[in-house]
Amino acid sequence: MQVYTTETEQVDAIKRFFSTNGKYLAVGLVLGIGVLLGWRYWQTHQTNQLHNTAAVFEDLNKSLASGSKENVVAVEKFANETDNVYGVMADLELAKQAVAQNDLAQAEKNLLAASGKAKDENMQAVSNLRLARVQLAEDKTDVALKTLDLVKGKGWQVMVEDIRGDILAKKGDIAGARAAYSTGLGLDGPQVIKDFMKIKLNNLSN
Fold it and tell me: Which residues belong to any copy of the Ancillary SecYEG translocon subunit/Cell division coordinator CpoB TPR domain (predicted)?
């Protein structure tokens, strides 16, 4: 390494360095700024796009209440083309409408789509809990139990055990149902669900 003993030599060395490498430093700086600006633009674009998607979902969700085939098709198209939380919510709303019309097969289809699309653990939990309920109503008890196993997060376990108890009771496994309800009652969770579990547990005892 060269050692420069005078200030003049140091200045001359710096000048030579920038004369030789200045172009590359400038290019590197421009590229660095370009990446930063590109990242900020992408973030802004994503945020704006999400806001726009939320507005579209809100309008479509309101139109779904009419029950017209045309509006249902529009929401289905939106759900199929939207791979974010609003796409999941659209599938959940379609499933709710299908259940109201006693079309459990369609509701299961919508909930499977929601579960597969959801990236957030809580949205996955909601989708799978509703899916298990629909599968129970379809007498797909073994499938419903497997669906429950997909639900993660301590905050959802009371509901998991509540549904598990219902499934096992329907299968005729009274001891298993009693164990599920008892487990659920020992967990933290919504009191209203635990109150219903107490009633179901008492009915099993009788």
Answer: 15-205
Nearest to 131 by CA among 116, 200, 34, 121: 116
Tell me if residue 101 falls in helix, strand or coil: coil
The answer to whether the CB of 108 falls within 8 A of the CB of 132 is no
Each residue of 125-177: pLDDT tens digit? 999 999 999 999 999 999 999 999 999 888 899 999 999 999 999 999 999 99
Would you tell me how many other CB atoms lie within 10 Å of the CB of residue 9?
A: 12
CA distances from 35 to 28, 43, 206 (A): 11, 12, 69
CA nearest 67: which of 108, 117, 115, 103? Answer: 103
Is the Cβ–Cβ distance between 144 and 128 less than 8 Å? Answer: no
Question: Does the global pTM surpass 0.85?
Answer: no
Q: Give Cβ neighbours of residue 14 (< 8 Å, ≥ 6 apart).
A: none
Q: Measure the CA–CA gap between 147 and 27, rounded to whole angstroms.
A: 54
Q: Amino acid identity of 149?
A: D
Q: Which residues contact 170 (CB under 8 A, 6 or more apart)?
A: 136, 139, 141
CB 138 within 8 A of CB 119: no
Number of H helices, E strands in the chain: 9, 0
d(C-alpha 32, C-alpha 23), whole Å: 14
The 10 Å CB-count burial string (b at 16+, else e) for 69-103 is eebbebbbebbeebebbbbbbbbbbbbebbbeeee
